[in-house]
Request: fold
Amino acid sequence: MIEIFASLSKKQILSSIRCVLGSFSSARGFWAARALNSACYLEAQKSNVQAESVAANVLEQYFDEVTEGPGIWKWRHYFEIYHRHLHKFIGQDVHLLEVGIYSGGSLQMWQHYLGPECQIYGVDIEEACRAYESEAVNIFIGDQADRQFWSHFKKNVPSLDIIIDDGGHAPRQQIVTLEELISHLRPGGVYICEDVHGSFNQFAQYINGFCQNLNQFGVKPGQELACSPTQFQSQIHSVHMYPYVVVIEKTSRPVTEFIAPKHGTQWQPFL
Ligand SMILES: C[S@@+](CC[C@H](N)C(=O)[O-])C[C@H]1O[C@@H](n2cnc3c(N)ncnc32)[C@H](O)[C@@H]1O
Reply:
């Protein structure tokens, strides 16, 4: 332990201390969220519920209409998440990768949803999944935890607009896949990692660390409050966490400045 600390720079030690202190806030947030499970809170919520009109989701409709043929296996609540982040690609010339093909039905669903212009790539560890190769669908067989496999993949596939990781679901597989593919995602692209199960899941913890970089902050001298984005902030628009799903969106154009201008003439004296 002492040797590890001795090898760290002052900046790294400070970040590590912040990380340890951050884990106390993380535990506090965890228990605050658990309190929302309490029955009295749920009762209060029920009395406030308004009748919501839920718009029909084309993906969910498609899924419900599949009663035979190649199988699709998705958590039902994923359809709303997909549509929220992916509808901007409908009808476009987009490149989509899904890791985890299984019985081929989800590749067909993406093709149907995005339209004839889209090009689909599927990755699976099982040789049997080659059966789903077609003009619009390229299949690669390999292990998503193998960096050499991704190196070969990236040499043969242009950069992607949409990446969906529905493969082995082990955090170490999800981490390698994200690290290998995030730079292969185009500006404006969307990365979805599915089946992140369990509180303090190692992939979710990894994402907690990853998105700390969204808040990196160093004010530029000047009259207005302004910051120069880091390379990370310039490229990564947002990180979203849903039950069992993480979504990362890239910026469509590099962000060059974060600025907080003040508009108006009347101000309280206390700040
Ligand atoms: C849950 S299924 C995919 C379901 C499919 N996307 C769907 O929506 O119907 C998971 C798939 O991941 C594949 N898989 C498991 N481990 C893998 C690995 N290490 N690399 C690549 N694929 C893997 C399995 O062979 C299986 O076909």
Remarks:
- Residues 72-74, 98-102, 105-106, 123-126, 143-145, 166-168, 173 surround S-adenosylmethionine (CB under 6 Å).
